[in-house]
Sequence to fold (348 residues):
Amino acid sequence: MEIKLEQAVQILERTPGVLNQLVSGLPDGWVMTNEGPETWSPYDIVGHLLQGEESDWIPRAKIILEHGEGRAFEPFDRFAQFEKSKGKTLAELLDRFALLRQRSLEELKELRLTDDLLQKRGLHPDLGTVTLGQLIATWTVHDLSHISQMTRVMCKQYGAAVGPWKEYLPVLTR
Amino acid sequence: MEIKLEQAVQILERTPGVLNQLVSGLPDGWVMTNEGPETWSPYDIVGHLLQGEESDWIPRAKIILEHGEGRAFEPFDRFAQFEKSKGKTLAELLDRFALLRQRSLEELKELRLTDDLLQKRGLHPDLGTVTLGQLIATWTVHDLSHISQMTRVMCKQYGAAVGPWKEYLPVLTR
Fold:
C-alpha cells in the first residue's frame, strides 16, 4: 500500500490497547524473560516503544517540516530503555506509553499533513534522504514489528513445553 | 518455563481481546491482504484460529483423557478456513472466535486438570506420543505465533512505503 495518513493512524492509535491486552498484569515469567543474551523481554520492548515516543517520531517529523534536508535527525538510542525503565513497573510503562501516544497523535493531527507534505524530504544521519511519509510508515511498521517480536519472545518461554509439536511451530526457531 | 495450566490460561483468555484490538474494524487493505502467493491474510488467520477452536484443542484434550495412547487424534485441517470463512465478515469471525474461546476455557476448567493429568499421554497421528501438557502449551504458543504472524503480514503492506528504513526493519524480509 501507499502510505495514507489516515490508514497509518488507524494502526498507531491501537497499539497502546493491543499492548495492554497482551501483557498488562501478566506474571514475570511471561513479561520479564527474553530470547537469550542481548535480546529483549516484553518489558524491554515496551520501554523501547516509550523511548521512540519521547525522542523519535514526532520530533523527527517536526525537523523535516522545519528544516527539510538542512538538518539531520538526532540519532535514536535503541538501548536507552535499559537505563530509563529502571525501577518502573510494566504497568507504569504501559500507562505512560498510552499517554504519550495519545499526545503524539494529537500533535500529528495539529501538523495537518497533506499528501504533498508527506513527500517533503528530511535527512537521516545514516540512511540519507527520507520523506515524511516514509517516517510515518516506519512508525507504523515499527509498532507492528515490536508486537510481532513480543509475541515471538513469549512463544519461546514454552519452547520446551510443546514437546514434539516444536516441529510445526517455526516461530520457536526464528 | 514448565507448563502451568494457570499460566497458559492467562494467555489463552486474552487472545480474543488482542485480536479485536489489532484488527477489528480495519479496512480491507490491512486485513484482507497477505504476504504473497499461498500465504495468509489477517482474515485467513482469524478463520484458522476459529477452526482450531472447533476441532483441535479441547476435542484432542478429551481424546487423551478418555483414550490415552489408544486412539490417535483426527488430523487437523490447516486449510479448512478457506471454505468455512466464505461469506463471513471479519467481525463475524472475531465474534465467533471470542464465543468459542470462552466455551473452550469453560470446558478446560471442567476437565479439572492436575499436574499429574498434564503428564497423561496421547497419540498424534504424525508426531507420535505427546502429553496433555504439551497439547496445552502448543495451544498457547499457537495463539501467540499467529498474532506474531498477523502483525508481520500487516507490516509488509508498508514494505515499500518505509523507503530506506527497510534496512532497519528485519520483519519486512522475514
